[in-house]
Amino acid sequence: MSMELDRLAIASVGAVVAVVIWLGWSALNWVWLRPRRLERRLREQGLSGTSYKLLFGDVKDSSDMTERAKSSPIPFSQDILPRVVPFLLNSVDTYDLDHLKDWMHGIYD
């Protein structure tokens, strides 16, 4: 009887360890490996950008730029994009994203 309980306990512990390893690998793949693979493939295709930052990405940079934009007075021109989406405009200018400039042509220039 106790031998059966020992086998059952070993099998249960083995199953729990397998599930924990699988969940850990899935989380690692979701949080780190897949984004890095995607970043590498995009760079191979010629698309540059900021490098991957774990979990939060460019949220801090974006919020800092938005706060800076909101702290300055609004100009009299109708160009509101620098105030509304400063991070997007900075990315377009920094990485020379011509396709986005073409897409935003009516409001960007």
UniProtKB/TrEMBL annotation:
UniProt key word Transmembrane: yes
Segments passing through the bilayer: 12-33
Keyword annotations from UniProtKB, A to Z: Membrane, Transmembrane, Transmembrane helix
Protein name: Cytochrome P450
Lineage: Eukaryota, Viridiplantae, Streptophyta, Embryophyta, Tracheophyta
